[in-house]
Amino acid sequence: MCGIAGWINLKQSDLSEDVEGVLHSMCERIVHRGPDSEGLWWDETVALGMRRLSVIDLKTGDQPVFSEDGTVVVMMNGELYNYREVRAELEKDRIMFVTRTDTEILPHLYTKYGDAFIDHVNGMYAFSLWDLRRRRLILARDRFGEKPLYYGVFDNKLIWASELKALIAHPSVNAELDLNAVRHYLSFDYVPAPLSIYKGIYKLPAAHMLTVENGEIKTRRYWDLERISSTRTNGANSSQTAIALGDRAEELRELLSDSVRMRLVSDVPLGILLSGGIDSSTIAAFAVRHATERVKTFSIGFEEDSFDESKYARLVAKHLDTEHYEEKLSATTAGDLIEDIGEWLDEPLSDGSLIPTYLLARFVRKYVTVALGGDGGDELFAGYPMYRAHKIAAMYRFVPSFVRNGLVRPAVEKLPVSHKNMSFDYKAKRFVRAAELDPVERHHSWFGSFAQDEQENLLTRDVLDITNADIYASAREVYENSPVKGKIAGMQYLDVNFYLAEDILTKVDRSAMQVSLETRAPFLDPRIADLAFSLPMKYKLRGSNGKVILKKAVEPMLPKTILERSKKGFGIPIAAWLRGRLRYLLHDLLSPEKLKEQGIFEPSYVDRLISEHEQGIASHHKELWTLLVFQLWNRKFLK
Question: How far apart are CA 33 and CA 425, in angstroms?
Fold first, then answer.
């Protein structure tokens, strides 16, 4: 695991900067991603830099790596899990390797296959490849977006980096807030690709490749679930439905087993992030099957009972006989970190599980350098409650409008406010407020903070006048052009492209890499995605029961309690903190004076949200947390 940075001149002129000094400065900003070594390389056109966290080939694995003739240069952040198999095939062509690192297969694959080389790797990565003969640059990001990559054009240079803080360290970059990106953040709780929080700086979307040749920049998607789904329908007449659930579950079990096996390869200590949910427990079970020594598992718990899952992690650890490590935390411990969010978040990200994810990573890093987790299981196998809620919403809309608006909604709005994790009143209120919206807006209103109509009250007139009000346009386009059939399958496809890549994986990457911990997600193997999106919906979601096939696949391996328990988010008691230990911070950063000076948010509307929350009239914790995180980020990066 590493971090990369660099730039290329788009015009025919030599690099004029202090190349070594600028590259080093950019890499210094991401030293937490790679504390073990630094690699710098440049010629008259391009400059490549990286920081390395040594995981594979500790002695000779430094970068850059080269093709045999030295004409292809690569710097990579990530891991290529099938590198041993690929290397063995390349050695049949008498290709000579000089290291044991996985990165070295890339220049050789490119020499052999051209741009199709990327089809031959299975991993998580963001890399830069320079072809000296063609004077051609390639940047690429992995299929699901596990590793980040930002880029922008400034002073006739394409500049890139793994993190924004490294990119804006280049003297040519001018970092200016993008108010359209702010609007997306307020709706999604993150800034979706290709946008970034800054004007002129973009995220390379997951599964995309960027090329620069003769000064021309092109981007293309090199992999998509569309390839997988083009021969299937997910419908009742699909040939897939003729295959018994048990047979498909056995196929899934074999794929998961192999995916975990591949991701256990490491030259440094490794463990499993164990929450006690079915996804992380599944990964732990397969790790135990393949490990050559006793598996280490890690979890954290909270003193607040409605947020604590540690007892389930202990149950799984005991069942699998793992070497289990657990840390119990108080709200005070977690709350003390909140003011530091702006120090290490490149962009505002208001996912409430950010803090516990960071705390878990910090705890795990005391013992291991690599950890496997269960990310991706919910998106691939329909585990989120929102998927079931869409079914309920379809039925709810048949209820006469005078009943919905005159009886149901007023009754729900009067439910007593609770600050427990995912309380009934919280879920019910969010459901009825968004149930009548179109599917895409409804979906993201359930996930996110401020719906489109709410932003009309939140944002100042100046901001509204110069920004695009159609926040969900890009998400709606992805959904409407989805190759899958059916509303729920379409939402899964949408979540893989948006929520998984830009929220879940971003949260894990930033939290873990801040403490130099590499994380791996075995569910995010393209073969597993292939299977998941080839299944009829009844094999994933049946009634209120999600992940049907996954539960069937791991039924012999896990306790029944784990298979039957309902999903619970990895959160913190934000609602109570905003009325208590974070009250001073809330009133400071969202004070009418500061908001008026800032000119983005309407002070009177924000003040009403705060007042209603503190008086217990309503729980606006999600909205206030989203605003607070933005202000914490803003305080650090845009003083």
Answer: 41
Place of tokens 């809620």: 389
- What band does 569 get if pLDDT is binned at 50, 70 and 90? low
CA 523-518-25 angle, 5° bins: 135
Asked if 39 and 99 count as a contact pair (C-beta separation under 8 A), the reply is: no
CATH of domain 227-330+348-382+503-564: 3.40.50.620
Tell me the three state secondary structure of residue 37.
strand
The answer for 383, left when phi > 0, alpha when psi is -120 to 50, beta otherwise, is: alpha
Query: In whole angstroms, what is the distance from residue 454 CA to residue 477 CA?
Result: 22
Phi, psi (degrees; rounded to nearest 5) at 6: 165, -175
Q: Name every residue whose Cβ is closer than 8 Å to that of residue 16 and which is 6 or more positions away in sequence.
A: none
Token pair in block for residue 204: 């390379």
Q: Is 635 exposed, middle or buried (0-12, 13-18, 19+ CB in 10 A)?
A: middle
Calpha distance 432→435 (Å, rounded): 5
Residue 284, helix vs strand vs coil = helix
Q: Please, which residues bridge with residue 546 across strands?
A: 541
Handedness of CA 281, 282, 283, 286 (dihedral sign): positive
Q: Spell out the residues 6+ positions from residue 493 whose beta carbon is closer than 8 angstroms to its own.
A: 225, 478, 479, 482, 483, 484, 533
pLDDT in tens, 452-508: 889 999 999 999 999 988 899 999 999 998 888 888 999 999 999 999 999 999 999
Beta carbons within 8 Å of 460's beta carbon, 6+ residues apart: 599, 600, 601, 602
* Structural element, H or E, at residue 405: none
Helices (H), 81-178: 83-91, 105-113, 164-167
Write the class of the CATH domain 2-223: alpha beta
> Whose structure tokens read 């000089």?
98
Count the Cβ atoms, other than its own, within 10 Å of residue 432: 18
C-alpha closest to that of 627 among 515, 490, 459, 436 = 459
| Rounded distance between C-alpha atoms, residue 210 and residue 227, angstroms | 20
Q: Would you call 330 exposed, middle or buried from its count of C-beta atoms within 10 A (0-12, 13-18, 19+)?
A: exposed
User: Using only C-alpha atoms, what is the Rg of the chain?
Assistant: 24
Quick one: the chain helix, strand, coil %, rounded to 5?
45, 15, 35
22-31, 419-428, 472-481: least confident range: 419-428
CB neighbours of residue 386 within 10 Å: 22
Instruction: Quick: pLDDT tens for 80-135.
Output: 999 999 999 999 999 999 998 999 999 999 999 999 999 999 999 999 999 999 99
Q: Quickly count: other Cβ atoms within 10 Å of residue 508's Cβ.
A: 25
**Do 316 and 274 form a contact (C-beta atoms < 8 A)?**
yes
Tell me, what DSSP letter sits at residue 481? T
Name the strand (E) or helix (H) holding 220: strand 216-221
Q: Is 551 helix (H, G, I), strand (E, B) or coil?
A: helix
Q: Which two tokens stand for residue 510?
A: 């930033």
**Any idea where the domains of the chain sit in the sequence?**
2-223, 227-330+348-382+503-564
pLDDT band for 414, please (50, 70, 90 cuts).
low
